[in-house]
Amino acid sequence: MIKRMTLKQFVFIIPLLCFIGVFSIYPILTSFLYTFFDYRTNDQQYNSFYISEKFNAPLFVEDCDYVNYFISADMTLVSEEDQQVFASIQEEVTAMKEQYEGETATRNFQSGEKDEVASFVEKISGEITAIYDKYPDVEFYNRENMETILQDLSGTIVQSNFVGGSNYARLVQDGRFWAALLHTVIFMVCSVTLEFVLGMCLALIMNKAMKGIGIVRTIALIPWAIPTAVSALMWSYLYDGSYGVVSKIFDVIGIIPDQTSMLLTAGGAMASAILADVWKTTPYMALLLLAGLQTIDRGLYESAAIDGASPVRTFFSITLPLMKPSILVALLFRTLDSFRVYDLIAILTSGGPGNGTETLSVYAYKLMFNQSNYGYGSVVVIGMFVCVAIIATIYVKVLGADVLRND
What we know:
Blueprint: H1 7-34, E1 54-56, H2 57-74, H3 80-98, E2 106-108, H4 113-133, H5 143-154, E3 157-158, H6 166-172, H7 175-206, H8 213-220, H9 222-225, H10 228-238, H11 245-253, H12 261-264, H13 266-293, H14 298-306, H15 311-322, H16 324-339, H17 343-348, H18 360-370, H19 374-399
Antiparallel strand pairs: 1-2, 1-3
Helix pairs in contact: 1-19, 2-3, 2-5, 3-4, 4-5, 7-13, 7-16, 13-16, 16-19, 18-19
């Protein structure tokens, strides 16, 4: 029977709830918010959340100054008549600029303000372009710069970047996302399977009471102690197509057709990443399984030996059933860890060749940090979150171990 938590007990876990709220729930909710916007930090029109049209007044003032500056430099290259036109444009730009000087933030449009600004930008853009077009043979100092600044000036009318659920519709049709998901699943299944089998064998060895077992346990944990970034760099040298020891050995014994196949082909690069991950994290899997092995009563093994049970029968009838909670924890931790793999892939292959090893984490990183597209990148992250939830549910249901039960 589960006892109800008292108020005094609840007070003690408030710091934990605050920690979870700040570092777990808040990032998830923030990422979920981003998915409804076309949010890009490298584009001034999309670097915030705009549900309705806005006016970037500070940028408007700055662009007006640039327009006047460029005109001043180029007006000496045109006729006196066009110089007067340029001067008239400068006066109009100055008068318009003075209306918004002192404003420091993007804001909503006031009544009729949007049409006024749009008409102004369209008018001076047409007039300036017409003057430049009259002199095709003249090399103006700022003609290209003027085109850029006029385009930037029109961008001060910030359109709404609220896209609703269209980012999710885009995700469903994104072939690169599904390819990255497939690469992630392949990496996860292969690495976790090999790590579980090898980790169980290593745990059984380390569980034996024999001389020198402490040294064996220490040596076995060395790969896990090496930082992933260092491990990935080390394996990149071992896989090198020119002087890599591992790639050379595989080439000599016929596992690969050529020494360069390890990192220069999609299949070879994926196998290389899996092998590197298995080497590093098998000791971690063994450590988790060893903890489960040491909770089993030794008397059960003695009784099984008296009854004449073979080691294989003992393993499947006693060891595995009693280790089910430990196996759940070990597999769940490693599966979720391998599903979100980033650093190993990023350093070893960078998702290549030809995106052949690009996982969801690598794809999300490229979207958000290389392309500064946090809106769609957050959709990919939410997709990963859904996959992680599904994986955790499947593990608990299939293995049938209630790790939260306390009665």
